[in-house]
Design goal:
Layout: E1 2-5, E2 8-11, E3 16-17, E4 31-34, E5 37-39, E6 44-45, E7 49-54, H1 59-80, E8 85-91, E9 95-101, H2 109-124, E10 130-135, H3 136-145, H4 149-154, E11 162-168, E12 171-173, E13 190-194, E14 197-201, H5 218-234, H6 239-247, H7 251-275, E15 282-286, H8 293-305, E16 312-313, H9 344-356, E17 360-366, E18 371-378, E19 386-389, E20 407-413, E21 419-421, E22 424-425, H10 428-444, H11 448-466, E23 475-478, H12 484-497, H13 506-516, H14 534-537
Parallel strand pairs: 1-7, 15-19, 15-20, 16-19, 20-23
Antiparallel strand pairs: 1-2, 3-6, 4-5, 4-7, 8-9, 9-14, 10-11, 11-12, 13-14, 17-18, 21-22
Length: about 550
């Protein structure tokens, strides 16, 4: 058996664990690609293979690290507070929020210190974490007997007949993903008391495997809190609960509740703008990829028109300079998401002249030729605001001549509490990725692999240009639709399953499949034609498919 590792080919007579290819006590690698398949360090190689080890600069290694950290935190809490139930959610500043339910004393720094001490003891003991396989019935009985009713409920929707669990020092749990072979691998993490629970920070690939500095985000945090409250109101923040709604023939009611929430937010936003329309000259809308910006902008325009306000729409894209003049990214390629890929001086001057009451001839960027052309000539009516939408819309460097009190900034993002079970939240970034995969296939004829090719660049642009400006927003619009994965599943699952296991994107595809497969289906025909979801699955009243 020949194994290539670190550029050297070695021969082995017997099967070997991946971790045994490393030096003893080498803890800087957390997973490996074996013939381009993501594997745990405990994976046994029994055929010729090429092995690439992954450290925390790899997002997939970070997923495994984070899953193991959550596992050990729950284990530590069970040791010191055995009757407490831990619930995780993704939170602000690229962290995880943990809340303890069933706690009969105030959660304070002393409680957090007890948890940290128990966790450190587990890590220092270098305890092995072993993967085992149970039948569905065995797993169901185990979860029920240990009070994990949320985990037992989701098993009803698992298509496989077996379940993987991981056991460490008589404690067993499953985090819906791969794990590290020993507690000793968990070295870097930070806890922060954050009412009514605590924040867990961990290394991030986009920070070169380091823990990013904690940055509080009041507006974003408030939106997440409201999303969590909404999940409780609608009783749909867990997959099993959503599936039960569908089984009870309440899918149409479920859809209408979610869509009404959007309607209410748009009505509230329309009133806020109406009440300050004498000051507002520029309405700026920004959000990350696949947050639903285009549909939201169209619906907001209709909302404002119903209040006697007819905003002038100006496309930021028309101010592109073209690839030749765009700044270069770290790979030497044109960075079309950089603010300097736009003619910011012309944009600022055009907006300034329009607000002054002057007539302006706008540019038009022809994406087929890659060149800018002469566009339409426009002039604002009295009290008519301008509306812009795009990645840089909230960035004041785009409109430095416009006073802040004349700008109304709106940040749109997908914010929700989606959980497989209490210990396994679903990444909101993954939900936006699923939206984009479906949309790119429907409207651009892109296979899922093309979308996954671009996703890394998209994410880098979001971290650089969007998230730093989100706290400047006057209003945060939550574009999540709690029912949406019950609709998206049928579209996305097939595309993801078509990605072959020798593809570089198989790892991500498999991770998405792991939770998508649990959702029951909702029929597309029940989705309103003006829904944000229609931007991704087609049939929107704002577009011609």
């Amino acid at each position: 058996m020949k194994i290539e590792v670190f550029g050297e080919v070695k021969k082995y007579d017997n099967p070997i664990r991946v971790v045994e290819l490393l030096k003893k006590n080498e803890y800087k690698y957390f997973a490996a690609k074996v013939n381009n398949r993501l594997r745990e360090l405990d994976y046994i190689i029994d055929t010729d293979a090429k092995v690439e080890f992954l450290d925390l600069t790899s997002s997939e290694a970070v997923v495994i690290y984070q899953s193991t950290l959550r596992y050990l935190i729950v284990m530590a809490i069970k040791r010191v507070y055995p009757n407490v139930n831990t619930v995780f959610n993704y939170s602000i500043s690229r962290s995880i929020f943990a809340k303890l339910n069933g706690f009969d004393v105030p959660f304070d720094i002393n409680v957090l210190s007890n948890i940290q001490t128990a966790l450190k003891s587990i890590i220092d003991a270098d305890l092995p974490i072993k993967r085992t396989t149970l039948s569905i019935n065995e797993a169901y009985e185990y979860y029920r007997s240990n009070g994990y009713n949320d985990k037992a409920e989701i098993l009803k929707y698992r298509p496989e007949e077996t379940v993987h669990t991981y056991t460490c020092d008589e404690y067993s749990n499953y985090m819906f993903g791969y794990m590290l072979p020993s507690t000793k691998y968990i070295k870097d993490y930070k806890f922060k008391l954050y009412a009514p629970g605590f924040i867990i920070q961990y290394p991030r690939a986009e920070f070169n495997g380091e823990i990013p500095p904690f940055e509080d985000a009041p507006a974003f945090g408030k939106a997440l809190k409201e999303a969590n409250e909404w999940g409780s109101v609608i009783d749909g923040s867990y997959i099993a609960k959503m599936n039960k709604i569908i089984e009870d023939n309440r899918a149409v009611e479920f859809i209408n509740l979610c869509e009404t929430k959007h309607n209410n937010s748009l009505a509230e936003l329309g009133m806020l703008i109406k009440n300050d329309i004498n000051n507002i000259r520029l309405i700026a809308i920004a959000g990350p990829s696949s947050s639903g910006k285009t549909t939201f902008t169209n619906r907001l325009k209709v909302q404002l028109m119903s209040r006697g306000i007819n905003p002038l729409m100006i496309s930021i894209d028309d101010f592109y300079l073209g690839k030749a003049q765009a700044p270069k990214d770290e790979f030497g390629q044109p960075d079309l998401e950089h603010i300097n890929a736009l003619d910011t001086e012309l944009f600022n001057n055009n907006i300034y002249e329009l607000i002054k009451g002057n007539e302006v001839t706008l540019p038009h960027f022809n994406f087929e030729t890659g060149k800018r052309e002469i566009g339409k000539t426009v002039k604002l009516l009295p009290n008519q605001p301008i509306m812009i939408e795009g990645i840089h819309a909230l960035n004041d460097d785009l409109t430095p001549s416009i006073p802040l009190h004349q700008k109304y900034k709106i940040y749109i993002d997908h914010q929700a509490k989606y959980n497989i079970d209490d210990h396994n939240p679903i990444s909101l970034t993954d939900i936006r990725l699923i939206r984009r995969i479906v949309r790119d296939s429907k409207f651009r004829n892109y296979p899922a692999e093309n979308t996954l090719d671009m996703w890394g660049s998209v994410r880098r642009g979001e971290f650089r240009w969007i998230y730093p400006n989100q706290e400047k927003a006057n209003y945060v619009f939550n574009s999540e639709l709690t029912y949406e994965l019950c609709v998206m599943k049928k579209h996305a699952l097939k595309m993801l399953q078509e990605i072959s296991n020798d593809s570089e994107h198989y790892i991500v595809a498999n991770r998405l499949i792991k939770f998508l497969k649990y959702f029951k289906d909702i029929d597309d025909t029940w989705i309103p034609c003006n829904s944000i979801l229609r931007e991704f699955i087609g049939g929107s009243m704002f577009y011609i498919d």
